Amino acid sequence: MSASMDRLVAGFGGGVAISGGAVAVLRPDSLRGPAMDALVRDAVFAKGADREAARQLLWELGQVTGVRPASIHDLYIARGRGECGGFTVPAMNVRMMAYDTARAVFRAANACDGAAIILEIARSEIAYTEQRPAEYVSVIIGAALREGYRHPLFIQGDHCQVNPKKYAADAEGEVGEVKKLIAEEVAAGFYNIDVDTSTLVNLDFPTLDEQQQVNYERAAEITRFIREREPEGVTVSVGAEIGEVGHKNSTVEELHAFMQGYNRTLQAMDGDLVGISKISVQTGTSHGGVVLPDGSIADVKLDIDALEALSRAAQKDYGLGGAVQHGASTLPGNAFGNFPRVETAEIHLATNFQNIVFDHPALPADFRARMYQWLDENAQGERGANDSDEQFYYKTRKKAIGPFKQELWALPEEIRQQISSDLQKTFAFLFEQLGVGGTAEVVERFIDAPAVQHGALAGIGGIAVDDPDAGE
């Protein structure tokens, strides 16, 4: 491992050194050049010791520069106390061309002095984009360092979701799989976890408490699991969900039923356990939007009044940061200014960023055609009986991201720059609409990102690394 580390450090041309068993940055500007690009590529595509050395060096560079994975918990709880507000945190799912996309995020954040931003990946996305948590964290740290972003990194496990069919067949086995993923995420540096047991809500029961019971009991159980594994000095921000996205709209009464049952269950487990910091609700959106036969997206009927009522109740009655809106990516541009106005804590954005890449005029047409051909050969089982080609490709093309990941990363720099530039414009627009500009100050005021030892390698730290191929 030491030979791999020596080679990677040498790539910075004297700008980085290992002294006394610790990484030192001698020239910060050296982190903002091609050596960082090469280091991140090694963290993703190298094998064995070379890959693990790259990931470890990225982690240590983040630690010494203050670009550390952090929890947004304290900021949300401060918001619940009324000590900050007027902005909505965008939680952005980085699926495709992850390094270039994340760099665009950080350029836009730097330009507006924003730091209340989350980068996330869902359980399902980890599979079809072929990005395990340790890789994802490395890419995000590298992108931040490359762009000179010097704030805590809020990296989130989105939709750590229980599959209802698998739960019905083997409840403990399915919850165990979710816990296994969460353990991997927290160990990698995901200090924000969205627990999604809303798939277990049963609306056939007569009372709201009965409908939400399995949801809140499992959410409390997983919360305890997270608290037992979070690093010293870190209170992982945990979110729960009361209504599955794309289904029935949530109500304030359902929020009360969930929160009262959740708090009661958590108290019975351990009176000192810290609970959730936010609550995800459903108010009319769906993941990815609803695609029409011509490939366009149907208008979304977002119930902004319900969202406001839910967010206010979460803050006033339970001290949470507020409500979280999923499936917001395909909303019209003039909708985003509503979220900070009604004190929405967080919105989740994903599909539109993917769409920008897939539909970008700079993306070679033959490359796009090869990805669609792959879908024809490998995803026909997901084609609806009445789907047009446009509907089929729109719904399934995310499944081609993983198989074509290395080719996407290897696109000519000119093409990647054009796509990244347009992504940056989109992020800048969203940050303006959501009030993210200037939030570096509020993050600095409420967030402490302690140094965390992580997967030590030869001569650095003192913790053994896991099997580098575990789970991959």
Features of the shown structure:
alpha/beta, TIM Barrel, eight-stranded parallel barrel, two-stranded antiparallel sheet, globular
Tell me what the structure shows.
This protein is α/β, with parallel strands linked by helices and 472 residues long. It folds into 3 domains: 2-65, no CATH class; 73-357 and 412-446, TIM Barrel (Alpha-Beta Barrel); 364-407, no CATH class. 48% of the residues lie in helices and 10% in strands. The chain contains 19 helices and 10 strands. The chain has helices at residues 2-10, 34-45, 48-65, 73-80, 98-112, 123-129, 133-146, 164-169, 171-188, 208-227, 252-269, 304-318, 338-341, 351-358, 365-378, 389-396, 405-409, 413-434, 440-446, and strands spanning 16-19, 22-25, 89-93, 118-122, 154-161, 192-196, 237-241, 278-281, 323-325, 346-349. It has an 8-stranded parallel beta barrel, surrounded by 8 helices. A two-stranded antiparallel ribbon has the order 1-2. α12 (304-318) links the parallel β8 (278-281) and β9 (323-325). α3 (48-65) packs across α7 (133-146) and α11 packs parallel to α12 (304-318). The chain is globular, with a radius of gyration of 22 Å. The two termini are 20 Å apart. The model is unreliable at 286-292 and 456-472 (pLDDT under 50).
